[in-house]
């Protein structure tokens, strides 16, 4: 195939307030803001955030009827120590689920952003 897909650039997370979402992902989770530019003729913005060095970013897109905020995003983030990160985020006021430990599966937990979007953190 000459026109093969070569990667995943970004995944979208619908948010109700892009500034609040940037504060959560950058200020609380420690992501880098990679892009924040006007987009479209309707006054919208294209905002991308990502963990330092990550190949794939998260686009914080304006929620609407077709893509409402407060969803399970299906996004899986990684960490070296799920238990320690879970405790740190909980202490910072982030809504986190219980630490799941299943035989043969890395430890993981769910976190919710300011709009209630669910992301899973996997060790």
Short description:
With 123 residues, this protein is an alpha/beta fold. The protein has one domain (10-122): 2,3-Dihydroxybiphenyl 1,2-Dioxygenase, domain 1, CATH 3.10.180.10.
Output the keywords:
single chain; 123 residues; alpha/beta; 2,3-Dihydroxybiphenyl 1,2-Dioxygenase, domain 1; four-stranded mixed beta sheet; 2 helices; 37% strand; VOC family protein
Number of extended strands: 8
- Name the CATH architecture: Roll
Q: How do the SSEs run, as a string of H and E?
A: EHEEEEHEEE
Helix content: 10-25%
What number is the mean pLDDT? 95
Unreliable parts: none
* Quaternary organisation of the protein chains: single chain
Structural class category = alpha/beta
Rg over CA atoms = 15 Å
- Main beta sheet, described? 4 strands, mixed
Query: Could you name the CATH topology?
Result: 2,3-Dihydroxybiphenyl 1,2-Dioxygenase, domain 1
Describe what you observe in this structure.
It comes from Nonomuraea rhodomycinica. Pfam families: Glyoxalase. Helices cover 17% and strands 37% of the residues. The protein has one domain (10-122): 2,3-Dihydroxybiphenyl 1,2-Dioxygenase, domain 1 (Roll), CATH 3.10.180.10. Strands 1-4-3-2 form a four-stranded mixed β-sheet, covered by helices on one side. Strands 5-8-7-6 form a four-stranded mixed β-sheet, with helices on one face. With 123 residues, the chain is an alpha/beta fold. The chain has helices at 18-28, 82-91; strands spanning 10-15, 32-39, 44-50, 57-62, 72-78, 95-96, 108-112, 118-122.
